[in-house]
């Protein structure tokens, strides 16, 4: 069993913001596998599915982003999982808009949701799928940028990016982590951020 967690903030105000792209990817995976992420427990909304014989818990923490670790730790404790069974999907400022990157371990890079998980688990060796949101164009404060809606010229490309991220998650379970990393990480963003 694996726990696949998409990071975001709960509530309609945040629904279509950059910081909620993790939620969007989990929703796309759930839709593709006819799964509902509606069970409300462990500070999360979650549901179960199967990809390539792997049983997955798809989850969206319902804490605020900077307390995501509380939800992840609760789910992992209940399902008796280790960091080897955890995959986290989140936005990343240092990855170009539209690019997807798979990593195992590493620092949190200023992402408070990832920091919260690192601290709650005292562990950072889990797999992450980073969804590139790029850096602010207009000197916006980072806190404002990640909680804002996409730039107008990006809005029509967000669905494609979310689909690519969901495909990367699927590849991890169908092709294996190493092969998925090799293929996905070699791709440049097909989306233009200009």
Verbal overview:
- The structure is a single chain.
- With 194 residues, the chain is α/β, with parallel strands linked by helices.
- Helix content is 34%, strand content 22%.
- The chain has a single domain (2-186), classed as Rossmann fold.
- The protein contains six helices and seven strands, in the order E-H-E-E-E-H-E-E-H-E-H-H-H.
- A seven-stranded mixed β-sheet has the order 2-3-4-1-5-7-6, sandwiched between helices.
- Strand 2 (39-41) and strand 3 (44-51) form a beta hairpin.
- Helix 1 (21-32) packs across helix 5, helix 2 packs across helix 3 (112-121) and helix 5 (158-174) packs antiparallel against helix 6.
- The chain starts with a strand and ends in an 8-residue tail after the last helix.
- The model has no long low-confidence stretch (mean pLDDT 95).
């Amino acid at each position: 069993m694996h726990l696949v967690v998409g990071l975001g903030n709960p509530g309609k105000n945040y629904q279509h913001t950059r910081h909620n792209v993790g939620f969007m990817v989990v929703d796309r995976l759930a839709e593709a596998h006819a799964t509902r992420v509606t069970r409300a427990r462990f500070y999360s909304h979650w549901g179960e599915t199967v990809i390539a014989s792997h049983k997955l818990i798809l989850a969206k923490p319902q804490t605020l982003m900077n307390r995501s670790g509380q939800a992840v730790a609760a789910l992992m404790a209940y399902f008796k999982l280790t960091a080897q069974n955890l995959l986290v999907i989140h936005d990343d400022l240092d990855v170009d808009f539209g690019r997807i990157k798979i990593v195992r371990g590493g620092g949190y890079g200023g992402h408070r949701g990832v920091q919260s998980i690192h601290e709650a688990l005292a562990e950072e060796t889990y797999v992450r799928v980073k969804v590139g949101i790029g850096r602010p164009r207009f000197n916006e404060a980072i806190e404002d940028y990640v909680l804002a809606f996409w730039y107008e010229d990006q809005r029509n490309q967000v669905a494609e990016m979310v689909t690519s991220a969901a495909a990367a998650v699927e590849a991890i379970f169908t092709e294996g982590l190493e092969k998925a990393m090799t293929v996905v990480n070699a791709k440049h963003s097909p989306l233009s951020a200009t």
